[in-house]
Write a structure and sequence with these properties.
Shape of chain A: globular
Number of helices of chain B: 8
CATH topology of chain A: MetI-like fold
Largest sheet of chain A: 2 strands, antiparallel
CATH topology of the largest domain in chain B: Rossmann fold
Order of helices and strands of chain A: HEEHHHHHHHHHHHH
Radius of gyration of chain B: 25 Å
CATH superfamily of the largest domain in chain B: P-loop containing nucleotide triphosphate hydrolases
Order of helices and strands of chain B: EEEHEEEHHHEHEHEEHHEEEEEEEEEE
Strand content of chain B: 25-35%
CATH architecture of chain A: Orthogonal Bundle
Distance between the termini of chain A: 37 Å
CATH class of chain A: Mainly Alpha
Strand order of the largest sheet of chain A: 1-2
Oligomer: heterodimer
Strand order of the largest sheet of chain B: 6-7-8-3-9-10
CATH class of the largest domain in chain B: Alpha Beta
Number of helices of chain A: 13
Number of strands of chain A: 2
Largest interface: A-B, 18 and 23 residues
Shape of chain B: elongated
CATH superfamily of chain A: MetI-like
Strand content of chain A: under 5%
CATH architecture of the largest domain in chain B: 3-Layer(aba) Sandwich
Radius of gyration of chain A: 24 Å
Amino acid sequence: MSNKNNLKGWLYLLPALVFIGIFMVYPLIDVFVYSFEEGYNFASQTYNGVGLFNYSYVLHDPYFIQALKNTFILVIITVPLSTGIALLISLALNSLNRFKDLFQTIFFLPYVTNTLAVGLVFMILFKKSAYSDGLINLLLNSVGISSIDFIEGPYWAKMFVLCFYTIWVVLPFKILILTSALASVNKDFYKVAKVDGTSRIRTFFRITLPMISPSLFYLIITGFIGAFKAYSDVVALFGTDLNSAGMNTIVGYVYDMLYGNSGGYPSFASAAALILFAIVLTITVINLIVSRRKVYYQ
Amino acid sequence: MKIILDHLTKKFVSIHNKKEIVTAVNDFNFEIPDGVLIGLLGPSGCGKSTTLNLICGLENPTEGRIFFGENDITDLPPESRGVGMVFQNYALYPHMSVKANIMFPLENLKGDKKLSKAEIEERALKAAKVVEIDELMERKPSELSGGQQQRVAIARALVKTPNVLLLDEPLSNLDARLRLQTREQIRRIQKETKITTVFVTHDQEEAMSISDLIVVMNKGVLQQMGKPQEVYNNPKNLFVAKFLGTPAINVFDGKIKDGYLYIGENKIRKAQADDQDVYVAIRPEGFIVSEKGVLECEFDRVETTGRDTSIISHNPNCISDDDIRTIVDADEKIIVNDNKIRFDLKDHKTYIFSKTDEKVMNV
């Protein structure tokens, strides 16, 4: 009976397993293999030898170093900031009595908009051309600051727009998760704390924060992974030629190596992808270790 | 410390209909003497929890004042009132150890009340000893049984040495056996600490068994206050009579005619009052089986549960329930003639209530 059930179970899983096998497991193995094949040629499907040259090349490529640097800056700035801002907004929303639903809807709107469309809007907002300034520059001018070209100007300005945009895009989801986490904290805890004369700050740090720590931790991990995989946002803001804009990311570098102007180098792309994988894995493991001490699971 | 509720009223805007005003507590006016254990008793939604919240300061009254001793504390925030509160689900902080939970209120103290770490630990241990959980200090709440969690919650409320201890449905999350045990514990802790304790419950048996005084409430209105047995024996109105006692009191449609009380055609006893329709309520233990008894009922069956023997019978005039439940002595002979059973009624277990205002008639 149990054997028969087992068979049935596998049969039900089969379609999913086939798709996962073809579109996930096989490519994963393939990427791993590519990354060690030196001088691989797409057309002839031949290679010279097996070794670590691809990794060495990628790690010495100034474009990759730039992409690595951009990605790290993006991650380090946007993950803590977006999570912190989302937490503040959620706390404010949670304490609202009136218009709560209205504000929740407003804060959730960016989530249902298209990345490229929003990127375009941001580009127009921040743009400066020979003929006209974007809205942001007009605002800057009004307080006496001269126009800055955020899209094609200095590196810090471009990085600012990218971080600003990334935070804005990821906020709604984080707010959604955090408001529901806050709402699910038993109100009796706050009543007890109040009767015991607990200050609001202490209530937040000793009660609220531990109670929502699983959600917070989930957001931080997915936030890290999401930010490391940044690509489409960057394209939306700065176009496809990211290397010359100096705004490439690791995923962007991988894409360029495959299909970009300098494309046709699946081995280099694979090596870069595996480096990204190693970085994300490391960060996630660190996160998990920290969380085991700090996160409270019910 | 004695508590005085002076014409206390609390009105809410209904959450279902914003235009509707609900009076949860209606003109409460009573005094809780120092050092007693008092039970606020009533069906759910009768305003008992609101009363508790008013006393502890989580709610502000619409009208009226609250005094602790001679001090008017109506406008004080909860933390300045010196109250300890235990919630129905205990609300223990799940991520903290038992010890951290008990220490938490003391760590909040500021200014000249601030305690050293050693003092805090000492007082936490003392409170834990009172409720007999001092061996569980390092555990997390999830590793404790319901009764133990309950006691941790009480220790946390006691650790500040409050003037008043408030318990909201303290036993309703426990199973039957633990409930009996814990209620004795609460009784013992209260006697030891002599802290004026107010507890809320919908379980009349619980309230009657451990309270020095009970307050019966219904729909925000105080029905009767007194010693449990006094209230049970002398209910002021039909609601109190029906609410107290298990099995519940049997209520009949009756009438007073020519100086006698009747249930249907059965002449029960003399009653000096004008002719009128009345409710007659008889406690289950107020029946005596008798061949020439005054009340005739249709016999159904005998039920024996433990030491109690109950006779189930029917009477068309009984309005409280389809079954009339009477508890009789196990040795008593049960005489059934032609499927009819007759009872004599104990006078002090039989109450007459007016049909107009449901108040007791002493006739």
